[in-house]
């Protein structure tokens, strides 16, 4: 009889725990962050990106996000396609170059970059990366540089985590996206990188495209894929 009472009490405790029952990860137990907190957590790792032509003039601008302290980063491939030289302006105002494209996939619109090695004893600020797949209705925040010295943050939800667009999987979000934000991060409610801003859909007003984390991970070197 005593064992029966103990089992009943354990079952009641598990049911009362609801979403916090055994098996829930620590990240899932954390309270969601508001847009301002997510921005403060990640904005130092987001930078303005200039793509220069052979004559040194600006051919395109966009946004990038740092993935490691040593200078690994990511952006949208269409921002850097055909560039003769790339320059980054960091959140603290420092300009760094040259920025190298080390891997890319035009089909998924993702490029992995390498910034110059940081000074001895220093390192770049970088974002954590989300491991769990996004789901319909998840809250997300987008950060980017529509202007060189004007980073902005917008808020929305995941409209679809796995939409087939032009024959490839895309994440669809309804967070507002302005020109120049391409390549910037889509963050989840824990301030973790959950996607890379790619573009907009002409057929769906207010719905925008992002490359998912699986597309980014496919391009990362093994050491970075395992962690920063």
UniProtKB/TrEMBL annotation:
Residues 1-22 form the signal peptide. Gene3D superfamilies: Trypsin-like serine proteases. InterPro entries: Chloro_Bact_Ser_Proteases (IPR051201), Peptidase_S1_PA (IPR009003), Peptidase_S1_PA_chymotrypsin (IPR043504), Peptidase_S1C (IPR001940). Transmembrane segments: none annotated. One of its GO terms (molecular function) is serine-type endopeptidase activity. Keywords: Hydrolase, Protease, Serine protease, Signal. One of its GO terms (biological process) is proteolysis. Belongs to the peptidase S1C family. This is Trypsin-like peptidase domain-containing protein.
